[in-house]
Amino acid sequence: MKKVILSVAVIAAMGLTSCKNETKKVEETTATEVSKEIAMTDLSFGVRGNCGMCKNTIEKAANSVEGVTAANWDKDKKKIDVSFDSSKTDATAIHNAIAASGYDTEKVAGNEEAYDGLPGCCKYDHNMAMNQSGEMKSDDHSNHDH
What is the pTM of this model? Predict the structure, then answer.
């Protein structure tokens, strides 16, 4: 009779231990997901450029920065949308990488040597407006012919 009661108590204790471990694992997973979400940052800023080749170079430069998960430059608006992990990089590093590839951003002038090495169709006007709204498209096309 005593043996039966003892084995029931041992089984009950084991059951409680496994429940505690499962609860702990769920909490850890949730905490990790939340911290990843908080670290992601979306940013938009102006970048001068002219054509599809510019788009490739500008986006490649932005994507070369560790932590950048997406980059999309809009040729008409002269603007880039970037998503990045702010625990790995910041806006300044992205501006610097684009400028190093030869393109002016709102904060950093493009590297002159890199600009000189760009194809002719990519030699943009250093005074062109950046981060435009969509309405200025007609002006954009007149600049494109010069």
Answer: 0.66
Q: What share of the chain is helix, strand, coil (3-state, %, to 5)?
A: 55, 15, 30
Q: Give CA–CA dist 50/123, Å, rounded.
A: 7
Compute the Cα dihedral for 82, 89, 65, 132 and give only its sign.
positive
Residue 40, amino acid = M
- Residue 106 or residue 37, greater confidence: 106
Q: How many structural domains is the chain composed of?
A: 1
Look at residue 41 and give its three-state secondary structure: strand
Residue 10 has pLDDT above 60, yes or no: no
In the chain, the amino acid numbered 88 is K
Determine, yes or no, domain membership for 117: yes
Residue 100 belongs to what domain range? 40-144
17 in a structural domain: no
In a domain, 84, yes or no: yes
Mean pLDDT of the chain: 79
